[in-house]
Amino acid sequence: MENTNNDFLPSSYEIPRAEGKYFKPKDGENRFRILSSAIIGYVGWNKTGEKPKPIRKKVDEKFEVGEVDQKKDKIKHFWAFAIWNVESKKVQILEITQKTIMDSIKALTQDEDWGDVTGYDIVVTRTGEKLETKYTTTPKPHKELDQEAKNAWAEVKPKFDLNKMFTDENPFGDDDEDDEKKDNTDWDPDNIEKDGNTTEPPECLK
Questions:
Q1: How far apart (Å, rounded) are the C-alpha atoms in residues 169 and 176?
Q2: E strand residue ranges, the chain
Q3: Is the pLDDT of residue 156 over 70?
Q4: Which contacts of 166-172 are long-range, i.e. CB under 8 A and separated by 24 or more positions?
Q5: What domains are there in the chain, each with its CATH number?
Q6: Which of 76, 79, 154, 195 has the fewest other C-beta atoms within 10 Å?
Q7: How far apart are CA 177 and CA 148, in angstroms?
Q8: Do 120 and 114 meet the contact criterion of CB atoms below 8 Å apart?
Q9: Beta bridge partner(s), residue 124
């Protein structure tokens, strides 16, 4: 990296981002490889504490009265699955509620030319802010998962259980505190994105 004429930092320098166990899409391109099957359900928000807390239910479970904010658009359908974050080179969980991303990934699974989504990288490009946020999903050419990713997933996989997300436990099964609990800033349900809104859950789930 070379210094610019009028800056004391190298022109290409970027401040390192702290990477937790949950993948948080940044502006621009986000490249990852899906490693596991998805769990599906509904997520609502309990706002009685200091910070909003996600409460997740399986598709056939109900939210208890007062358990979450049940106003329109506060309960959302979600998918969650393990990924390899290509940029940070780390196994993480990606949870999505954005219908456009869901539609795109589902279409890939049903396309005979693409098929199994664990066989290639996917790039989700995020643009805009809040109500103007948009996501574009692009598959990359098929290629074998690199050895570093294979080794990392092999180390995590034996204790990994996504279903622990429904019981407020750590899906990674290790002793580290779940980083979702340490910092819920990005979970705030009032920070609404237009492309993040999905259809309301059936009445039987409320």
A1: 11
A2: 28-34, 39-46, 53-58, 76-85, 90-96, 120-127, 134-142
A3: yes
A4: 166/39, 166/41, 166/56, 166/57, 166/58, 166/61, 168/55, 171/21, 171/93, 172/21
A5: 28-205 (3.90.198)
A6: 154
A7: 24
A8: yes
A9: 30, 137
